[in-house]
Amino acid sequence: MEFLVHIEIEWPPGNDPKLKDEIFAAELLQGQKLAREGKLKRLWRIPGRWANWTLYEVADATELHACLTSLPLYPWMNIQVHALAEHPNDPRSLGL
Amino acid sequence: MEFLVHIEIEWPPGNDPKLKDEIFAAELLQGQKLAREGKLKRLWRIPGRWANWTLYEVADATELHACLTSLPLYPWMNIQVHALAEHPNDPRSLGL
Amino acid sequence: MEFLVHIEIEWPPGNDPKLKDEIFAAELLQGQKLAREGKLKRLWRIPGRWANWTLYEVADATELHACLTSLPLYPWMNIQVHALAEHPNDPRSLGL
Amino acid sequence: MEFLVHIEIEWPPGNDPKLKDEIFAAELLQGQKLAREGKLKRLWRIPGRWANWTLYEVADATELHACLTSLPLYPWMNIQVHALAEHPNDPRSLGL
Amino acid sequence: MEFLVHIEIEWPPGNDPKLKDEIFAAELLQGQKLAREGKLKRLWRIPGRWANWTLYEVADATELHACLTSLPLYPWMNIQVHALAEHPNDPRSLGL
Amino acid sequence: MEFLVHIEIEWPPGNDPKLKDEIFAAELLQGQKLAREGKLKRLWRIPGRWANWTLYEVADATELHACLTSLPLYPWMNIQVHALAEHPNDPRSLGL
Amino acid sequence: MEFLVHIEIEWPPGNDPKLKDEIFAAELLQGQKLAREGKLKRLWRIPGRWANWTLYEVADATELHACLTSLPLYPWMNIQVHALAEHPNDPRSLGL
Amino acid sequence: MEFLVHIEIEWPPGNDPKLKDEIFAAELLQGQKLAREGKLKRLWRIPGRWANWTLYEVADATELHACLTSLPLYPWMNIQVHALAEHPNDPRSLGL
Amino acid sequence: MEFLVHIEIEWPPGNDPKLKDEIFAAELLQGQKLAREGKLKRLWRIPGRWANWTLYEVADATELHACLTSLPLYPWMNIQVHALAEHPNDPRSLGL
Amino acid sequence: MEFLVHIEIEWPPGNDPKLKDEIFAAELLQGQKLAREGKLKRLWRIPGRWANWTLYEVADATELHACLTSLPLYPWMNIQVHALAEHPNDPRSLGL
Lengths: 96, 96, 96, 96, 96, 96, 96, 96, 96, 96
Known about the structure:
The structure is a homodecamer.
Chain A: E1 2-9, H1 17-36, E2 40-45, E3 51-57, H2 61-69, E4 77-83, E5 85-86, H3 91-94
Antiparallel strand pairs in A: 1-3, 1-4, 2-3
Subunit structure (chains A, B, C, D, E, F, G, H, I, J): Homodecamer.
Family (chains A, B, C, D, E, F, G, H, I, J): Belongs to the muconolactone Delta-isomerase family.
EC number (chains A, B, C, D, E, F, G, H, I, J): 5.3.3.4
């Protein structure tokens, strides 16, 4: 099942820059791990914000929650999940 | 450039069912045409609504507007467009 | 997977009362059919509104969409779906 | 009377991890106590958030308030309560 | 249990004035009946709107729903219900 | 003139518990004083929140503001005021 | 007591132009009557909308409601009332 | 003084297509007239909507209102006006 | 040109009381200065909030911004500006 | 492609004034650099707020994001981006 996930990162400007560098590096690695496992399919930046849209493909909402809480930046994330149903005209299912 | 597009279809319950069938059939064909042209990349239903999320890849907002207004259901659509920026960790750009 | 579903029914006061009776009767039957199939688990009225909260247990959002669009009142419904993840302290999973 | 309760936990990322462990453990115990008393009926996680939906069955809003304020995490909770009315087609009342 | 009820009446300006007179008269009578039964306790107009705040005292949300749907104007009402819990400092409980 | 007042108390979880006890005690006393003066008529808790609905009867908005700012918790309150007009069908004016 | 009143006029584009002319003329007269009575103090257009801000000075919300419902356009108005309290630094009270 | 103006056109799908053609043609002409008078400076489409952002430069809000109500589509427009103040770093004032 | 200005003051309860006294005193003086200059015309308190509605009459939005940023409390203010157009039925322009 | 960008600056009143002066000076310089490169076209203040509307002309959302994150105040900015499509009646494209 696919989910469209909207993530806003709420990082106080005065936070320790070293902590930011460490967490940011760990975040990139964990994102790539989820991508290699075929769970995180696409990732886009929202222009002008420390925020993104992500497309996940997982078994259900419980596995999605496990993926999202595995992200090092999770404590600073404000996340909205949109459950997706298959559309008969989706180019992927049409083989287009 | 990619755009995430949220479409709600506002179709009055009392509308002519024959009109609905005709427009719906034409809508499917036009969606497939945009998919074959490589502009409409993915299409999902929003569960419980006559609504969808669509992923477009086009030159800019002007071409996107031309795609969306080419849809036969356009006069009954309430559309919100989200411009997307590339993310360095996007599985597609990483080749994952 | 469970979903919490919020349904508002938008029925114009001037609609044909006979149509309302017919659709309402069919709605009750279809709701009971979904309940007997183990998909619709609980159903509550929202006081003061022609609206309800429903708890569904289905395979995924695609099956949920099929359930909801099978309801005779679907064309007059404004539906918001909330995907649910399992909680380790849920009385059901604890056997309480 | 049943209530559907939406709880968001607002826990600052910089809070003492030991305090978090202690409160979290106490929270689990108090939730199980309310479940054993037949007041807390179901509990779901909202995917991607430190948040949940809970179904309570209590005498009235005053008893519900007592349940909710008994939770150790209450000072960090943002709670919205939805009063529920019985629906004649609820699978529980139909014995389905 | 007490409930604070916010009611907006959505009456199209072009509706039949005679229908309005009939329904309005029946509405006043039904409101007085609920007041005499001790269920509808207070009623205020919201200035500048065809809307009101009402204070109900009933057994639970199910009885409240029965009261509200007994109102002749119910099909034209947009109603929001606020469940109330007792406050230890309420002048009524203090005998003030 | 009556006013319906919605009060949310925004008290940081980490505040000094002793300060909380002192202010809370003073708050109860001031509320009872306003009740004895016939200005604060009813007071309800909003279940699940440190919040309440209050019914005031005062000369005008200026006197209401004086009442509200006299509350010891005022600096931590987020207050929304709803002006009320008399309704000819109010049980109080009908003597019901 | 003064009130700041926000009025949106919701007039369907297809309504009878003659009705519009008649009601509009009556509206202007009634507005001037309220102004001469010292109740309607100021009136501004909201640019780009068939809407206005109005400043009323009346005894209370009940009289304000009577003023507003006396307007011929009232059935087509969506009105929000803001109760005002006196400010010690108001130029009018300072005689500036 | 400059104003940023957000315009949504609310045109029912079932309206007479001939009326639409006539009004649309008149709208284009009136827009060009305002542009030639130096009042309408820039005009953009909002992708996916029958809506636009417009930049006006006029004496004040009263003249802006006169410009906007001169548009043939005005009765079908939902308009939000944003007043703009000069910024010392504006490329136009810097001659960039 | 007139502007209706909505100001919320966001002053943390724990701030230094001496700073509050100093800034508050300076705020009153600057408000009176703007009033004497004929720019600040009316000032009302919003009951129950540290907030106000203000009526300004200035050349344009640039001068309004200069007035507002001259207020000592400006760094703690959340301000929304409403541009006003003249109304032909305004009592002031009618000499009423 | 053009973008309309809405920027709110969220600067705590208690921040170090020297830091503010340094960042503000750097912000002005970077804004002028973007203007000279032809990317930042117009810049307006929102009256009463530390906020602005900016008009950008860049290749796409990815370049826009690079421009915005190059601003020294970026960590304190809350930014909303509006993608713009060309309008055939835009005075610029008409050569007006």
